[in-house]
Amino acid sequence: MPFLEPKYQKAAELRNKRRPKQLAVINQGGCTGCMVCVDFCPVDCIEVVPGPDPDNPSVHKLVEIDLPLCIGCTLCAKYCPWDTIEMLAFDGAYAIAPEWTLRGVVDEQWQREPVQVEEARPRRRDREKKATE
Questions:
Q1: Using 50, 70 and 90 to split pLDDT, how confident is the model at 11?
Q2: The domain containing residue 128 runs over which residues?
Q3: Which of 61, 96, 120, 121 is spaced 20 to 30 Å from 35 by Cα?
Q4: Which DSSP state fits 65?
């Protein structure tokens, strides 16, 4: 992404190599569309969802987070004046986001493959314990 601040460039590059521990999810039931979170997002992963009236799309607008782009920095949740953004575990975020999304634009903009949730690898000490049994 060419418009990233230099201090967040490394985090965005790492996002492509490994997944973050947590992701931001917006509960659109409490979102007012104030767009404060958009200003603080370092990777520009928050999209504006226009209102339902095509003649006046700025009325009842919302925001939605593009989860595959989120780096889990917590800035949007920290500065949301309405406390509608939650930081959830990676797997939980993908499970809860469809329930909390009233209107979305991300799926319409980007055709992506569904995220494959990997099973956690057993820890080394668990493997060693199992081998000794």
A1: low
A2: 6-132
A3: 96
A4: E
